[in-house]
């Protein structure tokens, strides 16, 4: 433990902090060099740039359009190179490496198996190759003396009609590394209640699930997700702020939905950089994270899409520190929020909190 007080909060020291991420898309976190190599291997010739740095910049600039629809279009290229066993395995493996290099000790990574069938793989094969990549990545990290736990959420696309099938797939792999289910995609016109049969199946099989809600659409999306679908967590959930009135003196009055979300400790998977890129918030200073944290909602910090956001967990934390003035104790609280909200079993959660997260922050707090 430091005898000189807290370590300064910089990008370098943040990388040393043990972190937990609940909301990260596998197809949104590829290395540009890997995209180029996989594209060459599978014959994909539609990439907008032909060198890693130019490709990185293209993804970042395209994702900064302020439109969720255009933001989602960038995934056409990443998904295209994740159609083979080799592509899925490599992307999953490198995801684990990249998280470990950034100090992440726990990650729930999500992807939509239904989008990876173009080369003839079955849904089960897609999931198995991905899980094998995660396992190999964990083993490689362990060989360097570090520890990381990476598990998987299976996502169904909200505009498609395969959510029940993907829910069954998640339950089928629940003891092999899949810990939950999600629906994602454009919110407007595709309410979560369209997928009630999937959520009822998951509940009947005691499987946890999160729902993208309150990002590009408003409070009704959040209400449906928690009241009708029974979501364990909310992906983004920024529009919960629409149900909170703040007086000039700072006093806050919560509406029924906001009170329910806070009372039930429903976690909010907040992704500051992504929310800014998609137009869910106008600026980081206006991001509801600060107000929600002050009101003791269970806020968590997440990356969403590391490639499109040109970001890492350390970058996300630094942005919050610079915007809201947080210190190490705040970052520790947000990290423990994430671990408490994770979909792994309680003993493993407790182990990571007690043996990695608390000791890691104790060193930084001094």
TrEMBL record:
Annotated residues for binding of Zn(2+): 23, 25, 212, 304
Amino acids binding substrate: 25, 27, 185
Enzyme class: hydrolase
Single GO cellular component term: cytosol
Occurrences of domain Adenosine deaminase (ranges): 18-358
Site (Important for catalytic activity): residue numbering on this chain: 236
Cofactor note text: Binds 1 zinc ion per subunit.
EC number(s) recorded for this UniProt protein: 3.5.4.4
Gene Ontology molecular function, alphabetical: adenosine deaminase activity; zinc ion binding
InterPro entries xrefs: A_deaminase (IPR028893), A_deaminase_dom (IPR001365), Ado/ade_deaminase (IPR006330), Metal_Hydrolase (IPR032466)
Keyword Zinc (UniProt): yes
Keyword Repeat: no
Superkingdom in the source lineage: Bacteria
Single Gene Ontology BP annotation: nucleotide metabolic process
Active site positions: 215
HAMAP family: A_deaminase
NCBIfam families named among the record's database cross-references: aden_deam (TIGR01430), PRK09358.1-2 (NF006847)
Family label: Belongs to the metallo-dependent hydrolases superfamily. Adenosine and AMP deaminases family. Adenosine deaminase subfamily.
Function: Catalyzes the hydrolytic deamination of adenosine and 2-deoxyadenosine.
Name of the protein described by the UniProt record: Adenosine deaminase
Organism: Antrihabitans stalactiti
Lineage of the species this protein comes from: Bacteria, Bacillati, Actinomycetota, Actinomycetes, Mycobacteriales
């Amino acid at each position: 433990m430091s005898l000189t007080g807290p370590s300064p909060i910089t990008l370098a020291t943040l990388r040393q902090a043990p972190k937990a991420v609940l909301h990260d898309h596998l197809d949104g976190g590829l290395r540009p060099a890997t995209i180029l190599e996989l594209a060459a291997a599978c014959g994909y010739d539609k990439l907008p740039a032909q060198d890693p740095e130019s490709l990185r910049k293209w993804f970042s600039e395209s994702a900064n359009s302020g439109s969720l629809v255009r933001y989602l279009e960038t995934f056409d290229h990443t998904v295209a190179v994740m159609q083979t066993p080799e592509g899925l395995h490599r992307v999953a493996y490198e995801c684990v490496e990249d998280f470990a290099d950034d100090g992440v000790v726990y990650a729930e990574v999500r992807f939509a198996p239904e989008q990876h069938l173009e080369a003839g793989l079955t849904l089960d094969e897609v999931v198995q190759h991905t899980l094998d990549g995660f396992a190999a990545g964990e083993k490689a990290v362990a060989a360097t003396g570090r520890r990381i736990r990476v598990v998987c959420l299976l996502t169904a696309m909200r505009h498609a009609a395969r959510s029940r099938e993907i829910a069954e797939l998640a339950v089928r792999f629940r003891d092999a590394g899949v810990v939950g289910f999600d629906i994602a995609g454009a919110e407007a016109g595709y309410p979560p209640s369209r997928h009630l049969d999937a959520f009822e199946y998951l509940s009947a099989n005691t499987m946890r699930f999160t729902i993208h809600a309150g990002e590009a659409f408003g409070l009704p999306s959040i209400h449906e997700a928690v009241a009708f679908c029974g979501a364990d967590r909310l992906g983004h959930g920024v529009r919960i702020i629409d149900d909170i009135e703040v007086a000039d003196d700072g006093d806050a009055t919560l509406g029924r939905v906001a009170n329910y979300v806070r009372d039930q400790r429903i976690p909010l998977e907040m992704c500051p950089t992504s929310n800014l890129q998609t137009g869910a918030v106008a600026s980081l200073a206006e991001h509801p994270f600060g107000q929600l944290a002050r009101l003791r909602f269970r806020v968590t910090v997440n990356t969403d899409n590391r490639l499109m956001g040109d970001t890492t967990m350390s970058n996300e934390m630094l942005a919050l520190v610079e915007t809201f003035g947080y210190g190490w104790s705040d970052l520790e609280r947000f990290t423990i929020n994430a671990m408490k909200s994770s979909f792994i079993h309680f003993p493993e959660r407790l182990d990571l909190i007690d043996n990695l997260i608390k000791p890691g922050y104790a060193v930084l707090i001094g």
